[in-house]
TrEMBL record:
Protein name as catalogued: Uncharacterized protein
InterPro entries (UniProt xref): Sipho_Gp157
Organism: Caldovatus sediminis
Length: 158
């Protein structure tokens, strides 16, 4: 176990911690937007605050997902580099488990038919075009879609 690889593992753990510490700003923005929505005096003000809340929450979620992935990779590497059998934190135990071998296809055309699945899948775009043009399609119909929220940047709305 080389000193440089131990130092690299420690640096990777610190980088993940720094990334998590940086998420505070996004969390504060989300909390501020939530507080604004709670204190809003009229529906328009509440809606603006709720939009800010959605955007901040999306930022927090994206950041958290990336941080979790980076933290898992860094902790796995650190356990491997240090030779530690496990890491314990409260009721939780982290160990490095051997991965399962996966199949990598090098030439799909060479795979024998008995190892190939054929999936029959409706082409919804083609069906929609036909139905909108008035052509009947057995087993399909247009539905009444529910309204959904679309969020765009101001440049896109001009």
């Amino acid at each position: 176990m080389a000193i440089s690889s131990l130092e690299d593992a420690l640096e990777a753990l610190r980088a993940v911690a720094a990334r998590a510490a940086g998420a505070d700003a996004a969390m504060r923005a989300m909390q501020a937007a939530a507080a604004d929505a709670l204190m809003a005096r009229d529906p328009e003000e509440a809606m603006r605050a709720t939009l800010r809340l959605i955007l901040a929450a999306e930022d927090v979620a994206a950041s958290a997902g990336a941080t979790v992935q980076a933290a898992r990779a860094a902790l796995c590497r650190a356990i491997e580099e240090t030779g530690a059998p496990a890491v314990v934190a409260g009721k939780h135990l982290a160990t490095v488990a051997a991965g399962k071998p996966g199949v990598r296809i090098t030439d799909p055309a060479a795979i024998p038919d008995r190892f190939v699945r054929t999936v029959r899948e409706p082409d919804k775009a083609k069906i929609a075009r036909a139905l909108k043009a008035g052509e009947p399609v057995a087993g399909a119909m247009l539905n009444n879609p529910a309204p959904h929220l679309r969020i765009q940047t101001r440049e896109a709305t001009r």
